[in-house]
Amino acid sequence: MKLVVAVVGAHCCGKTTLARKFAAQTGARFDQELGEKLAEEAGTAAGVDDETVLARETERDRDDVCLRVVETWHTGNFGWHKLRRDRGLADGHDLEARTRRAVREVARDHKVVFFVLRCSDQERRKRREKSGRTRLPPFDNMDEEEMFEATFRVGEVAIEEVRQLVETQTAENRAGMIVVDVSTDGEIEDIVDIMHAELLKALARDDFVDAERLSGSMRSARVALESAIDAVPGLRELLARHKFPAVQRRIPGSGVVPDGASESTIVKEVADALCVTSTSTSSPPLAPLRAFVDAVSCKDLEGAFYIPETLRRICPTKKEQTTSLVRRALDATVDHGFAVVYRGLVSTAACDAIVGELEAARRGELEKITGLNRHKWKNFNEPKTCSNAKIELTFVKSAVARQRRVEVHAALAKRTGREEWARPNPPSKEDHVTVFAYVEGAELRPHRDKDISDAKALTAVVVVGDEFEEGAFYVNKDAEVDPSTGHATAESRARRQRFPDLRRGDAVVFCNDKTVHGVERVAKGRRISASFRV
Ligand SMILES: O=C(O)CCC(=O)C(=O)O
Ligand SMILES: [Fe+2]
């Protein structure tokens, strides 16, 4: 999708400043008001004839750019033409119709969004005085004051043109209009933020990007960045060392982002600093924000960003919740991408105890729930074609099981240096350990779990019995199924991130309801793993 953002409004209402800032923040090309540019180029204050303006504007429209922020544009140029025409100075025939055609032409393969800036007369005058500008071109012998009045009408004509265009648009040339009151909407940064948010909403209304998600990302990018800087030991230093070319004033107290940096710069810098790859998106203005969110949250860990009940229980305050999530997400992202291995997380003695409990449960000495079908299991593959028969699944429910879970949490806290891992969920139905026993020939087909509990944070799978061959655990970020066979495609298999050498006590932490995962065929022996919600 290509996008043209046109900024329209009366003289001195802040078009140039806002358009330039908005463009910088979104990584867009900024196209200055053309009449002004041509007058500058010609070294004359007298303005340029309307035909030339229309021809040159149309020429600029043909440039192949994804995202442009263009000041005044055709509709504004038309406002000037109308002023000239009213005073008997117009050149050009039929300019109104041709101007509209020019916009429609662009709207055929671009989304066009007009920002109409509204500003009180008083505020416009204040801004004119402040800027010391008396650059209005001499126009039909009008004095400066008369001219200033006339520019208001020029703006009004442009706005009326925009309204007409939007009202008469067709499915083939869609255009949106967003009115922003710049006399009351506060500081320039705030207005730019409002423009950004409003643009997202406009895009959402038109259904060509998933704007709900994008605007969520924008918010979470900000929240995540703020929290990450507070929460992650060393991140502040890391970012500072990374030497931003500029800073982000709007992150209060961050102290690491120098003045004047655009959001996109920051996002990119953060992604670089964290050694994660920025991902691109087809929505140009949001690419950097998406990149940041993807970078920090890791797509497959998104679940970690909306853990509902469990999170509220573990972390009573909102700040704590975000902090904890950001930390967890960063853990996994920075270390590995989307799964983290902690070697020897659980002691051999504890592994033996879990295996012992499995045996006890089998003998009926412990409360247990067995069988895959008790589990609301959402296979990634077609459930019917999935043969998990050789896996025995046991939910061991006991005080010891609960104690194991507490130990896993404590071990993770120690290993990561992050104490919130040590806070296990309160007693609940998750107070069991899920033990998987794989006999020879067993494999766990690629799947995501529809979790049996509300603990949708992360899962730690601990290998507790390692007398087996092959049977590698894997995660597959970009898994694909061949619809004709219901099996993962060969390309998809090749992309698996395999962990072939997990041994007794090793844990792999990942998001089990977001990331496709499984266990390859066990060639020999018996593989026993225990799965904890953490
Ligand atoms: O046995 C394993 O390693 C995988 C367990 C699993 O799929 C899970 O815990 O969700
Ligand atoms: Fe699973």
Automatic annotation (TrEMBL):
InterPro entries: Oxoglu/Fe-dep_dioxygenase_dom, P-loop_NTPase, Pro_4_hyd_alph. Its cofactor is L-ascorbate. It holds the Pfam family AAA_18. GO terms for molecular function: dioxygenase activity; iron ion binding; L-ascorbic acid binding; oxidoreductase activity, acting on paired donors, with incorporation or reduction of molecular oxygen. It comes from the Eukaryota. Keywords: Dioxygenase, Iron, Metal-binding, Oxidoreductase. Residues 423-534 form the Fe2OG dioxygenase domain. SMART domains: P4Hc. The keyword Membrane does not apply. The keyword Oxidoreductase applies. PROSITE patterns: FE2OG_OXY. This is Fe2OG dioxygenase domain-containing protein. It comes from Chrysophaeum taylorii.
